[in-house]
Amino acid sequence: MSLAGKVAIVTGSGRGLGLAYAQELAAQGASVIVNDVDAATAAEAVAAIEAAGGTASAVVAPVGPSATAKALVDAAFERYGRLDILVTNAGVLRDTVLWKMSDDDFDTVVDVHLRGTFTCVREAASRMREQGEGGRIICIGSPTGQRGNFGQTNYAAAKAGIVGMVRTWAMELKKAGITANAVIPVAATAMTATVPYFHAAVEAEAKGEAMPAFFRHDLGFGDAGDVAPLIAHLASDAAAGVTGQAIGVGGDRLQLWSHPEPVATAYREGGWDAAALSEEFDAIVGERLQSVGEKFPPLPEELQPPQA
């Protein structure tokens, strides 16, 4: 696989998962536009890519506004002459339960994740269509958007919305040879660092040690370096036939998420009135009701977090 001659934008790539994506794309030969809201962080990311022999430059701006999307795409064309790959990774968290979530908590997360993905993809896809050589759109989702998560109304809404947009864009952009896919990463982040269940995994990563096999294999939980190769693959010519998909990756595990499909169907001539529903509902759907949230297996005793 080679991305030589390709040009990529990775939003929110100053650190963490986004930086890993930018570094992997650069290692495969792409020239990369790095994006962050902090100039020093963006400069450090560019320096790290260049020190490894890659090519990168930075655009410092908050993702969300259309002006930022235009600045990112303009930079790709002005500095490298084209655009082939967009990875929408930028995001923020404002976690709290529904009854405590403020308008600002909700709007901030939706604006960066959902609106930011929309504005960046709209601008990039428009320019890719003009360029006439196809392209790759890779949007970062989350297990929270697939399954829900306590305290993350805003984040769940945004990440679920991203997958819905990806499915739509796959249809709209097919004729132009532009693929659109969502990646669902499961990796150590600032968020998982605060969850006691992941203590042993986060501690191992902080020490530069291998994560216990329980996390890598049983949970499919790893570090940023485990996710980045999938980004590079979806950005390559080898993935030209993959579009409209939600693909999970983490630790030792790769997953293809299904699209929502009916799990129970019944018909009643003339339609369903309240009495008929009361009588038949449990028999039709009762044993097929879907679970919510992620269900983790019990931690082995040796991986239990220290007691406070």
Automatic annotation (TrEMBL):
This protein's record includes keyword Ligase: no
InterPro entries to which the protein is assigned, alphabetical: KR_dom, NAD(P)-bd_dom_sf, Peroxisomal_Beta-Oxidation, Sc_DH/Rdtase_CS, SDR_fam
SMART domains per record: PKS_KR (SM00822)
Ranges for domain Ketoreductase: 6-189
Residues in the signal sequence: none
Pfam families: adh_short
PROSITE patterns referenced in this protein's UniProt entry, alphabetically: ADH_SHORT
Coiled coil regions, renumbered to chain: none
Presence of the UniProt keyword Oxidoreductase in the record: yes
Keywords, sorted A to Z: Oxidoreductase
Family statement: Belongs to the short-chain dehydrogenases/reductases (SDR) family.
Name assigned to this protein: SDR family oxidoreductase
Taxonomic placement: Bacteria, Bacillati, Actinomycetota, Actinomycetes, Micrococcales
